[in-house]
């Protein structure tokens, strides 16, 4: 196991400086029990020495593809749960694909494999020891039968290029990717893109999940949307992700779950504009209501198998929309757009370290799609966000015509 | 017209001190147009000199029963709209029942009728000149055909005692009252109580409406629920309340609209407890989702004519729940309950000037009702709020068993 062999070597000074913080954080997280990080190494060893681990060929091997803030938080849970459910999952090793970066002269993968902390994207919170950072994406997915895609959608095409041909027979995937894939009058969710490209079934997970709060084991909920008649896959993903503090609901609705995760970012931009304008809570909640309704109507109009109950009943629906409009980068950056008068590309550099603000890019994708379908008039809030963010329309026209 | 005759007398020193603030606020509100407060007096005069005002017997006469924060904000809109729609409403005079109080040695009704400001409950924001404060409730409703009930529900029974026998034939009412009327295993909304007692049809209005934001003409939405086959009444109330910045939606669902307005306060208490515990946005939005779902299930289980779409589509549903969980006294006081450790009766005195916190009292009503129906188990969040607020259960058990 690479993580345990690494941890016996003397840590570098950069890594040594992290260790006291790590110890403090470990002490603040849930007390040790058989599934917590402290005991994972021994639990994993016990599990891997069981005869069933070699005899039972049906065990799923998990790989996490992406290691940003959310990828790291999800890897932390998956690393714990494969041990808890070692009858179902190969538990000794959960490969985590990490886009290699140098941090203070050290490779990020080496830091993760030594300290078990993703110092760049989820500082202070330890991953399980069985989560192994791997810089080569093809190696990370080698032999994996349960692929978890969790990355900004801009990186997916390149990741799929590298993965194609390396996926095990009978594998299945789940997409935690936000956004929509628009080409002219065609629109696809990224679970469809993965499914089509790799020829494997792909579910979707989305919910009111600020990554750092999930990692700190604050009570949270999420939704897994599974494909028609594939509840067994939903149950597998539930097993991989559910904890007492991270509740996983299941619904047969990959489209609705995925689209909620994309479109709520557009609504969060609108909420941020409203905050920047100082409009108060009546206006903000009106915008959220209208945004939720446009989301529901959009899903039902353009996708066939969407379940109407996803929007009110599921965490992926109303709850994620609420979280995103209360906190989150889309709301915050849109607020700054109004209060500072700076354009979004400047704010992306200043506030997001150069990362793209998903809400405004999804607003553009949705605008282009609705324009191609000649349906802009039916979605006045989505359209208004587009024109304010991309077209120079004054922000204080936000509620006009809603 | 008592208001204009009063305004020609020299104002008292107490009132003179308000006038500069009033002028400043008037200047900040929407610019004068034929329906704004500045021009109401002349508009009202023009209207009342039209021959139609005496010939057309079908004109509705509005009375506002209650003059707290929300009552005053609604009276402000109604005073403007009766002028705008003087073909439908008697526009020269909108009686506003005011529970008489002494403010700096002056009667509150005299202050309102002189300055056109409810200095106690909606300071700084002028009412229309045609809104006339009246301390005698029977006189306030004399001849009125459109009765707007807007008061804490604790005062309703006494108000109805005084009104009974003074209501004009063919009158209709609308309830803006929050709460539920529970007796053992019976539950009623207050629109039903009004309807039964006065023998007149009663609609309901509820929505994401923080009174001060509505009064300041921030973009807001609300919902009017009207009785089965009585859309004409819904349209009348829409005419009385709708403005470009206060959008009134209609739905044939008095029960759902009323119950949302009551139960959201229980959810807001839960959200406040979560805030007090420092649980973050994932947890808070999970609580809001669960609360909205319990609200919907409660309405559908115990009331016959509730429309499922009220909860997601209407301002009275999801939007009001959001506003109440973001701001509002229920959230704030429940947060203080956790952070200060003080009991609610102390917090009601310290934070609410002795007024009752609706959410905890509705939680008790709902608990008693569900207990009588042996249905507590189906509403774990409502039940948890009751036990934490009234029964000494530790607040940090809030999310257990949800």
TrEMBL record, chains A, B:
Transmembrane segments: none annotated. One of its GO terms (cellular component) is nucleus. It holds the Pfam family NAD_Gly3P_dh_N. SUPFAM superfamilies: 6-phosphogluconate dehydrogenase C-terminal domain-like, NAD(P)-binding Rossmann-fold domains. NAD(+) binds at residues 66-71, 99, 155, 211, 329, 356, 358. Its EC number is 1.1.1.8. It is an enzyme of class 1 (oxidoreductase). The keyword Cell division does not apply. Residues 61-229 form the Glycerol-3-phosphate dehydrogenase NAD-dependent N-terminal domain. It catalyses: sn-glycerol 3-phosphate + NAD(+) = dihydroxyacetone phosphate + NADH + H(+). Substrate binds at residues 178, 329-330. Keywords: NAD, Oxidoreductase. GO terms for biological process: carbohydrate metabolic process; glycerol-3-phosphate catabolic process. The active site is at residue 264. It comes from the Eukaryota. One of its GO terms (molecular function) is NAD binding. Belongs to the NAD-dependent glycerol-3-phosphate dehydrogenase family. This is Glycerol-3-phosphate dehydrogenase [NAD(+)]. It comes from Apiotrichum porosum.
């Amino acid at each position: 196991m690479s993580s345990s062999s690494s941890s016996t070597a003397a840590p570098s000074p950069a890594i040594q400086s992290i260790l006291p913080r790590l110890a403090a954080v470990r002490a603040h997280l849930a007390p040790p029990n058989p599934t917590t990080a402290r005991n994972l190494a021994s639990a994993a060893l016990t599990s891997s020495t069981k005869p069933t681990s070699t005899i039972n060929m049906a065990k799923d091997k998990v790989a996490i593809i992406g290691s940003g803030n959310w990828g790291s938080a999800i890897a932390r849970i998956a690393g714990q749960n494969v041990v808890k459910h070692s009858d179902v999952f190969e538990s000794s090793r959960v490969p985590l694909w990490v886009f290699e970066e140098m941090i203070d002269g050290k490779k990020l993968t080496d830091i993760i494999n030594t300290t078990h902390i993703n110092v760049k994207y989820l500082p202070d919170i330890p991953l399980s020891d069985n989560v192994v950072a791997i810089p080569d994406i093809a190696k990370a997915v080698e032999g994996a039968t349960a692929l978890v895609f969790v990355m900004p959608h801009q990186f997916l095409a390149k990741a799929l290029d590298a993965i194609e041909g390396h996926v095990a027979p009978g594998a299945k995937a789940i997409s935690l990717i936000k956004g929509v894939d628009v080409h002219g009058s065609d629109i696809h969710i990224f679970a469809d893109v993965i499914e089509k490209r790799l020829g494997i079934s792909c579910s979707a997970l989305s919910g009111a999940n600020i990554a750092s709060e999930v990692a700190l084991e604050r009570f949270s909920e999420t939704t897994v949307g599974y494909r028609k008649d594939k509840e067994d896959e939903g149950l597998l993903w539930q097993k991989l992700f559910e904890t007492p503090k991270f509740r996983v609901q299941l619904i047969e609705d990959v489209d609705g779950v995925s689209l909620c995760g994309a479109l709520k970012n557009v609504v969060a931009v609108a909420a941020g504009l409203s905050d920047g304008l100082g409009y108060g809570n009546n206006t903000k909640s009106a915008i959220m209501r209208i945004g939720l309704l446009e989301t529901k109507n959009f899903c039902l109009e353009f996708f066939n198998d969407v379940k109407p109950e996803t929007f009110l009943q599921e965490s992926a629906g109303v709850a994620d929309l609420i979280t995103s409009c209360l906190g989150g980068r889309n709301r915050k950056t849109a607020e700054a757009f109004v209060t500072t008068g700076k354009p979004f590309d400047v704010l992306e550099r200043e506030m997001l370290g150069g990362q793209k603000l998903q809400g405004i890019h999804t607003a553009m994708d949705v605008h282009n799609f609705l324009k191609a379908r000649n349906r802009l008039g039916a979605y006045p809030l989505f359209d208004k966000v587009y024109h304010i963010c991309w077209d120079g329309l004054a922000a204080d026209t936000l509620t006009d015509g809603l």
